[in-house]
Design a protein that fits this description.
Blueprint (H helix, E strand, L loop, with lengths): L18 H6 L3 H4 L1 H13 L20 H9 L4 H12 L1
Amino acid sequence: MKKQPKSRKSSRTNPEWTVAMIAKARPAREVLPKIFGARVAANMLKPRGRPRSPDSKVAISLRLSPDTLARWKATGPGWQTRMASVLRESV
């Protein structure tokens, strides 16, 4: 049996928004500053995400021959860091 689609009836308690209602709308922090004001302001001051490292890296795509890559990987964990240091020294 197919699911019956929900009817899109508008009620008096939750009417569909008109252009005039949208134009009169205000942010929650203006309407309810005790609830939203301090929390929103504090969240806006904090930077989001992970802090930037002073020596950040850049992701690139590099094509190497399979034998070269195999030799670097054979040196064990940390091979990418060692490869980067060799490249840094050569520059």
